[in-house]
Design a protein that fits this description.
α15 packs antiparallel against α16, α17 crosses α19 and α19 runs antiparallel to α20. This protein starts with 16 loop residues before the first helix and ends with a strand. The protein has 20 helices and 24 strands. It has 5 domains: 151 residues, Beta-Lactamase (2-Layer Sandwich); 106 residues, PAS domain (Beta-Lactamase, 2-Layer Sandwich), CATH 3.30.450.20; 102 residues, 2-Layer Sandwich (Beta-Lactamase); 88 residues; 166 residues, Histidine kinase-like ATPase, C-terminal domain (Heat Shock Protein 90, 2-Layer Sandwich), CATH 3.30.565. It has 691 residues and is an alpha+beta fold. The strands form 6 sheets. It has a 5-stranded antiparallel beta sheet with strand order 2-1-7-6-3, with helices on both faces.
């Protein structure tokens, strides 16, 4: 191929740019195409179209695929090493290294079949080396005047950068998907316009849906816990408002409708808006933070418990009469209660670590340090008496004691020392006075015992008088009253009413004296206590109250009852009073129903308000419940007082001593009694007896 001067340009090369000029300068007579004057009209027309085009284009003409191309091809095609030699040359010669890969595409296009490829890898030789390049191309057959394919037009663009970006985007998507899977996130994507919701398999599993199922929006909303649904809905509407920036961040609970499994999730998302403010997309993630929240709640509870224990420890130690301290395993003191600072007048800074030695008496310093060092080395309990200077300058004797706290879960090593300092100065200097006080108190106790014995004797004399001397006049009043009614009843007129009222008063006085006698005879004589089976006691009481039970149609539900150490007669009085009261104070037209149960409970579970008169490790808790008229609990303490009544004598008989007897029997047996009740809701008496 040679260049020659062309006196006048060919019209079809007008506006052909640099390549148009170059084509004119070539001696085409030496090529298979021959002189441009002889070129077919189809070739000229095709060239006139492709040369000014901004799309990279190469025209391969004839069976040898002679090449012609436009300026745009120079900037996109790897022609730095091919141009201008490629012009007017057969494609197979120019692209010798690629021809095995692309020849088939040329021939297919030459046969009349267009060939298209997107992002195809076709390596090119650039900067003296082969590099991978990606291309999108189209081989189009160009027909000549006879209708046959005269050539192939190749339009192409290099997509190496786009492919790289797509590949990077794909990698990022894979990394994101891996991160989502690793983080066990659920993903969601909502089309607010179409109300269409999509999500990943994990989200569907949480919602109780198959992995290949669609996600109905109502299903997703209904899965939100009832307590959170309104709050979540409001937050979604806020996110879909462009004024809020579209950000979405909320914690709530979802419930799987199939398994009822409850999860606490954190939802994060972003709404996307058109220019007119309409949201077209709302997507984000759900993170299952159930374990995190549960752990956090446990940690907060543990921390709260720890702080509470520290507060309690500090509170308790500050109010203890002793000085309380703790030390690290190496002996450095790290805590003193307020009593220490009050006694010594020192500050925390001057007391901690080894500062506690400063107020020791000089004569006691050496032996105290020796004893403390010995305990630290051996782990044996620390105990010593020494003198310490008080804030007013006076030296006072103290008893110091400490025990090691060991790591029982591991190697039993000492993790801390806890100790106290007790002021024993008065005990050491006033022992004589204390002995005298002991003698005086012993004498006073003997006197008190004598007074108690005399009081018991007086009580026994009162019981005798009450049972004989006081009852005798009442019996005569009732007997003479009966005689008067029998002999003169028809002559007394209105006087008969007064006579009956007199007899009734005498009868009530007799019952009152009997109850007082019973109350006074209840004494604490534990040497006479023996094992009493309460099951038999209740059976005996049921037998005694058989007529009252039948008349009132009462039912008793008695569970298994224990045996306790006590006085059988007193325990019989206890159950007699409680059961007869339950029958007496029943609601109108409602048969009494009485339930008796028992349970052995440790002392640590007793309510704080329950204070038995005898300490024990375990107690028998007895409950006697009824469905009677009940009472207002503000009278709970009053009902156990002697002569206290909550109802008029005309409504319910009695002297008001029965429950006082019950309480005294319980206290004599080392126990305690409580009562709960509501008007018309029945009453429950709870008795605690050692056992």
């Amino acid at each position: 191929m040679t260049n020659r001067a062309i006196p006048a340009p060919y019209s079809f090369l007008t506006n052909g740019g640099e390549m148009g000029k170059l084509i004119q300068s070539i001696d085409w007579t030496t090529t298979p195409l021959g002189s441009p004057d002889q070129w077919s009209q189809s070739l000229k027309t095709t060239l006139s179209s492709l040369l000014p085009s901004q799309f990279p284009t190469i025209l391969f003409w004839g069976p040898q695929f002679i090449q012609l191309y436009n300026d745009a091809a120079l900037t996109n095609l790897a022609l730095s090493d091919k141009h201008p030699m490629a012009l007017a040359q057969p494609a197979a010669d120019t692209w010798r290294e690629l021809w095995p890969r692309v020849a088939s595409m040329f021939h297919r296009a030459l046969a009349g079949t267009p060939v298209h490829g997107d992002n195809q890898l076709i390596p090119v030789f650039r900067n003296q080396q082969w590099v991978d390049a990606y291309w999108t191309y189209s081989y189009s057959p160009i027909r000549d005047e006879s209708g046959d394919v005269g050539g192939v037009m190749l339009t192409f663009t290099e997509t190496t950068e786009s492919v790289g970006m797509l590949r990077k985007l794909k990698e990022q998507e894979e990394q994101l998907r891996f991160a989502i899977d690793a983080a066990e996130l659920g993903t969601w994507d909502l089309d607010p316009i179409a109300n269409r919701l999509t999500g990943n398999a994990r989200l569907k599993t949480w919602l109780g849906l198959p992995k290949d199922a669609d996600i109905p929006l109502p299903t997703a909303l209904n899965a939100i816990a009832d307590t959170d649904r309104q709050r979540v809905s409001e937050r979604i509407w806020q996110a879909l408002n462009p004024a809020t920036g579209g950000q979405y961040n909320i914690v709530y609970a979802i419930v799987n409708p199939v398994t009822q499994e409850r999860r606490i999730v954190r939802a994060r998302g972003q709404a996307h808006f058109w220019d007119d403010g309409v949201a077209y997309r709302f997507n984000g993630t759900l993170q299952d933070i159930t374990a995190e929240v549960t752990t956090q709640q446990k940690l907060e509870k543990l921390n709260e418990d720890l702080l509470d224990q520290i507060r309690r420890f500090t509170f308790v130690t500050d109010f203890m009469p002793q000085m309380v301290w703790s030390a690290l395993p190496d002996g450095r003191h790290d805590f003193f209660n307020q009593r220490w600072y009050d006694f010594t007048g020192l500050t925390p800074a001057s007391s901690l670590n080894d500062g506690w030695i400063r107020p020791l008496h000089p004569d006691d310093l050496q032996r105290t340090e020796k004893r403390w060092t010995y305990s630290l080395q051996t782990g044996e309990p620390y105990e010593i008496e020494y003198r310490m200077k008080r804030h007013d300058g006076q030296y006072r004797w103290l008893l110091a004691r400490a025990l090691p706290l060991r790591d029982e879960a591991n190697d039993m090593s000492i993790i801390r020392w806890f100790g106290t300092c007790t002021d024993i100065h008065d005990q050491k200097t006033l022992s004589t006075s204390l002995e005298q006080q002991v003698e005086e108190r012993t004498s006073a106790l003997k006197l008190a015992n004598f007074d108690l014995q005399r009081s018991n004797e007086n009580l026994e004399r009162f019981a005798y008088v009450a049972s004989h001397d006081l009852q005798e006049p009442l019996r005569k009043i009732q007997s003479f009253g009966d005689m008067l009614k029998g002999t003169y009843g028809d002559q007394l007129g209105d006087g008969l009413l007064y006579l009956e009222r007199m007899q009734g008063a005498a009868g009530r006085m007799s019952v009152l004296i009997k109850d007082l006698l019973t109350f006074s005879r209840i004494r604490t004589q534990r040497d006479t206590f023996r094992t009493v089976p309460l099951q038999r006691v209740v059976q005996d009481v049921q037998s005694d109250l058989e007529l009252a039970i039948q008349e009132s149609a009462a039912t008793l539900d008695v569970g298994p009852l224990p045996s306790v150490l006590g006085d059988e007669a007193q325990l019989d009085q206890l159950f007699m009073n409680l059961i007869s009261n339950a029958i007496k104070f029943h609601q109108d037209n409602v048969p009494p129903r009485i339930t008796i149960r028992s349970e052995r409970v440790p002392a640590s579970t007793l309510p704080k308000s329950v204070k038995p008169t005898q300490p024990a490790r375990y107690y028998q808790r007895l409950t006697i419940s009824d469905n009677g008229i009940g009472f207002d609990e503000k009278y709970a303490d009053r009902i156990f007082q002697v002569f206290q009544r909550l109802h008029g004598r005309s409504q319910y008989g009695g002297t008001g001593i029965g429950l006082a007897i019950v309480q005294k029997v319980v206290e004599n047996h080392g126990g305690a009694i409580t009562v709960t009740s509501q008007p018309n809701q029945g009453t429950t008496f709870t008795i605690y007896l050692p056992g």
